[in-house]
Design brief:
The structure holds 2 protein chains of 2 kinds. Chain A has 12 helices and 15 strands. Chain A has 2 domains: 222 residues, Rossmann fold, CATH 3.40.50; 165 residues, Rossmann fold (3-Layer(aba) Sandwich), CATH 3.40.50. In chain A, helix 3 packs parallel to helix 4, helix 5 packs parallel to helix 6 and helix 11 packs across helix 12. The radius of gyration of chain A is 22 Å and the shape is globular. By secondary structure, chain A is α/β, with parallel strands linked by helices. In chain B, strand 1 and strand 2 form a beta hairpin. In chain B, helix 1 packs antiparallel against helix 10 and helix 3 packs antiparallel against helix 4. The chains are: A alpha/beta, B mainly alpha. Chains A and B meet through strand 7, helix 7, helix 8 and helix 9 of A and helix 1, strand 2, helix 9 and helix 10 of B.
Chain lengths: 413, 318
Amino acid sequence: MSKIKGMILGTIMTGLLGGVAYAADSVKIAFIDPLSGPVATTGTNGLAEWKFAAEKLVNEQGGVLGGRKFEIVAFDNKISPKESLIQLQVAIDQGIRFVAQGNSSGVANALTSAIKKHNKRNPDKRVLFLNYSAVDPALTNDKCNFWHFRFDANADIKMDALTDILAKDDGIKNVYIIGQDYSFGKAVAAAAVRNIGKKMPNAKVVGNELHPIGKVKDFTPYARKIMASKADAVITGNWGSDMVGLGKAIIQAGYKGPIFTYYAASNGITKTFGAEGKGVIRLVAEGAINPPASARTSDYINGFEAKYPDHDISQARIANAAEMLAKAIDKAGSTDVIKVAYALEGMEHNSIWGGKVKMRASDHQAIQNVHIQAHTDENITHALDNSAYGLVKENTVVNAAMDSPTTCKMKRP
Amino acid sequence: MELFFVNILDGLVTGLLLFMLCSGLTLIFSMMGVLNFAHASFYMLGAYFAYKISTYTGFWPGLVIAPVLVGIAGALVERYGLRRVHQYGHVPELIFTFGLALLIEEVVQFFFGKNQMAYDEPHILDFTAFTIAGNAFPAYKVFMIFMAMAVFLVLLYILTRTRVGMIIQAALSYPNTVQNLGHNVPLVFMGVFGVGTALAGLAGVIAGPVLGTFPGMAAVLGSIVFVTIVIGGLGSLWGALVASLLIGWLQTFAASYNIVIGDVLMSIGFSKPVNIDDGAFRDLWTLTVSQIGPILPFLLMVLVLAIRPQGLFGKRET
């Protein structure tokens, strides 16, 4: 009897030890984003992209520090800042030192200040924050800190790039700005008004309005106002069903000009706009997938689509974030968070999406090419939503907002 | 002025759509005394069923099949769910429908995922019917108006001109007497519930392509439906119609004009505080009517309840 017990115990022990050995071997990245609830699509899509990036771009290339693998550990924050802080603590307790988050600037704001405090109080358990999507400009300005790195272009940079392109078009005289009534919608509107005033002396803002977020059933009345204002261009930061509802209503009201958006693609949006959105919907973002920058880009996207047929490469910067983190760890020669952070600062990286990404040291904001992309079914190599439609690069602003000022006063350890 | 006419038409579309949802709910409510929280979920089911059918056969068969499926689902829910819970009183019934609403939403997401569905208008109706001062009015919306009108007329005819309608009307007020006269009142209840949910399903089929087919579509409409039937008066078809149109126009006009509340206050004699950024009512002065649009129906409901608790066309107190 005791023999059997001993054997069982022994097996369990070896199993446990093996597990521990494996855990110490891999570099874990905590992915804290919504995996349930109303915006879970974005979260699960991001998780798929992180897993694929870690597998394809790091682990299959031999990992970091001579063979250690990246491992993405998912935590569901239900898009609540409070829940995110709990999950952050769980992740830290599990010994995870790298945290990736992107959906909602509200969550990012909570995480960045929590991580700042944590790192101050626990110098032996410091954590690095890889922000891959939260675009609130404050995160790399007033609220910046040494532990936070943003791989996406922030809302101001995107607007800067968008208005650079708009300013070249003399046909645009009237611009209508509409967005959801909360911090991000207001930030987009403010940036648009500021940039248009500065760069487009011949254009005027004919409408600047906020609508209740997630509460509007029918956007037709808003579309009528836009038609009545004789707008040549519409700018919106809307996402999710508010984006689809607004876009469809404007198109059906007879609008023919461009609608410049931040988030009108993937998660069913591309497929829903379909033929209607062609020639109207534009999207400003980093990382264009059409035309693919190289054969490597195409291979990567095809591999992703084969493994995750229901998801899209909708947040291209995730690949940059994974690759740059791997490089930084190798350069630092350890996973020590301070060393990795210093290695990331000022890093220049040849992106898989073409062009260079530079992590600006002064505020930890990635500077990269920002593109205006058009929703269309022509010249699409890599479509979205399993439809015939996708995004094609129309214009590029190289190193968008490279010299933009920052109010960040970074304290370095 | 042209914009005013366009808004009248847009509000009519919104209102009539709301009516299709409310007509079924108001009948169910007055008959069983149950607020069917899952009513908007049946609307959602209608849209998703029709989307699925439309991927195989196009839009038109879905228009017929989806509401029938939703109606059968509704009838089954009444027969095997609500009727069993009924004996324990109204509160368990309420909780039952509330749970059902959550269940339907989760089940739909389980099968269809959380993405927006690419449910589109049929190609025949994908053109501009007419244009008022540059504002296109899609043919599909004209179709929506006629569908809703037809539903109203058919319901009105059945309820007021046929024997079935008479029994339903009687069962609304005196269920026990009707039962004693030899009519199968449970069957009537099941029928009304089935037809009511089928109407919600039909609304979903028609609204899905315009308002979007996504997991939150029931939640967006959920509360406004109850507001409408309370304003209109429980059990009154005319009340549901008038209240729906009222709310449709109210919301459309609120969203259409950027009237700042501060201007309104000034026009009725208030003076603007000098240092507005420090004032306690800072937000009130800078709000626009379109920002508060979604709460206007609730204000109207409070007003109606205070002045005429039985609703605009209601016959009895609730």
